[in-house]
Amino acid sequence: MKNELLTAAAVFLFLTNTVAQLTTTPDGGNRKAQVSENIGITTVSIEYGRPAVKGREGKIWGNLVHKGYMDLGFGTSKSAPWRAGANENTVIEFTTPVMIEGKPVPAGKYGLFIAYDSLASTVILSKNYTSWGSFFYNDKEDAVRVTVKPVPLDKSVEWLKYEFLNQNDSSATVALEWEKLMIPFRLSTDYVNIQLESFRRELRSEKSFNPGWQNYNQAAVYCLVHNVNFEEGLAWAEEAVNGTFVGQKNFTTLSTKAQLLARLNRGAEAEALMKEALPLGNPAQIHGYARQLLLQKKTKEAFDAFKLNYDKNPNTFTTNMGMTRGYSALKDYKKAVEYALKALPQAPDKVNKDNVMRIIQLLQDGKDVN
Predict the structure, then answer these.
(1) Residue pLDDT, tens place only, 172-201
(2) Quick check: is 108 in a domain?
(3) How many CB atoms are closer than 10 A to CB 54?
(4) Is 110 in the same domain as 218?
(5) Which distant-in-sequence residues (6+ apart) come within 8 Å of 222 by Cβ?
(6) Residue 9 falls within a domain, yes or no?
(7) Are residues 164 and 76 in the same domain?
(8) Is the pTM of this model over 0.85?
(9) Which of 189, 210, 228 is the last residue of a domain?
């Protein structure tokens, strides 16, 4: 019986040393974390271990986090940076090419390391992201190195964390924060060209015909808004208007195409297309277009659009306000007041009513309201 128990114990010991362990929290009181943000259409993800200060204030930087590079006494690296977290590699991933502090980095996964120095730390992205910590770090596997300046923090951060700061469509600051120090690095993307390339790819997929003209028009409008790629934008706009199975002539598609023609200095074609588009517009669309013309100082064309809208949809709040603005642009303030007084009782809420009253006062004072 004794021999049977010993055999069973030996088998159990063997299994516990060879079979994958059950899932538990990380050792050493650390936490595992993931953070992910989009910069434009680029997804940036960081997976890392979160150590805590645990009463070691003043003993983190330069002590627990060693300065520069050192032999950690294990693994193959004799000159290892800090693993920028706890336990396994800190891993950062980009779904498109990016720039780190102005240096190009292809899309993909990277091990993230930091060679700490209080004056200038080195942030390292390694092509090897699967090793354990920095024990096997090899500088020949570096994808990029950048030098950044650590920033003191007013309040202590107990658990190490990564945050995304100062974000916009094309850039963000990625910041490691722990205890009373932040190590930031700037990450940027070629957002416009990445977006255009995404449009090209998607408009060759099922999105080329589903839902229809809307996707082609969206890509064309992007070119207008960002003032880029007008020729290709016009091709997308043409597909939205006349494309097989998907094209549709409506105010939106025709006006988008007209705007691109105008950007390409094809003004006569643009004007002819807008004459075709205007009768297809709803009151809000025509009103919005007329106001754009006012901004372009095209007073007569704006008045004609406001008048067309009024003739199609007489005596509504939108069209009465359009005629108010149209006559004001022509300096006919008396006529403008007449339409503003018609619009006043039609105002849908107090904000609009107060605005109409303000406009009436301006017109009575002989001032243009546009």
Answers:
(1) 999 999 999 999 999 999 999 999 999 999
(2) yes
(3) 12
(4) no
(5) 195, 196, 199, 233
(6) no
(7) yes
(8) no
(9) 189
